[in-house]
């Protein structure tokens, strides 16, 4: 299979983005399987409304990984972000990383995270940071294998940072 990473370009890409953002949101809900799809969508809507983030803003960048130029397999959502809280420098924040189930365990998330590092350098920055839920072992293993350091924990949240 041949995989290619491209920037998000059109409205179909945005639909894919929103769908995977919702899927990743579900991974952050405790006991998500106790809720119906409708309830989860309502929670997602409330979360979105409580948040002033605009991924269409120019500080944001979304890369989609394609299988053979025909199928979207996953994405990474990045932001060139001001210092906040314990992250005291301008940095790249990873808002979402998601590979659709049928494409997992083929190294695609690793490729996207390496692309994120490239984009970070292009932005003139040398720090990437992100948040993971403590029981999301696949993603934590991935970040740790890429030398992200756990810099803070709070309840079920783990905050990681990598200096290039
Ligand atoms: C986490 C996720 C992005 C990994 O994507 P992936 O393409 O399958 O990951 P890769 O194939 O690139 O794996 C890279 C490394 O991640 C780790 N990893 C991935 N899946 C794993 C699993 N199920 N268990 C343990 N480690 C895992 C391993 O270290 C792996 O390296 P290895 O193959 O040398 O062992 C994917 O499972 C996913 O999209 N999950 C749902 C969304 C999500 O939880 N996103 C997190 C932020 S909200």
Topology (elements, then pairings):
Elements: E1 3-7, H1 11-27, H2 37-49, E2 60-67, E3 71-81, E4 91-99, H3 108-122, E5 127-133, H4 137-145, E6 149-154, E7 157-163
Parallel strand pairs: 4-5
Antiparallel strand pairs: 1-2, 2-3, 3-4, 5-7, 6-7
Coenzyme A binds next to helix 1, strand 4, helix 3 and helix 4.
Helix- and strand-based class?
A: alpha+beta
CATH fold-level label: Aminopeptidase
In DSSP terms (H or I, runs of 4 or more residues), the helix count works out at 4
Look at the structure and give the CATH class: Alpha Beta
Shape: globular
The topology string of helices and strands comes to EHHEEEHEHEE
Tell me the number of structural domains. Answer: 1
Poorly predicted runs of 5 or more residues: none
The overall pLDDT average reads 96
Biggest β-sheet strands, sense, barrel = 7 strands, mixed
- Ligand kinds: coenzyme A
What are the defining features of this structure?
164 residues; alpha+beta; Aminopeptidase; 7 strands; binds coenzyme A
What is the structure about, briefly put?
With 164 residues, the protein is of the alpha+beta class.
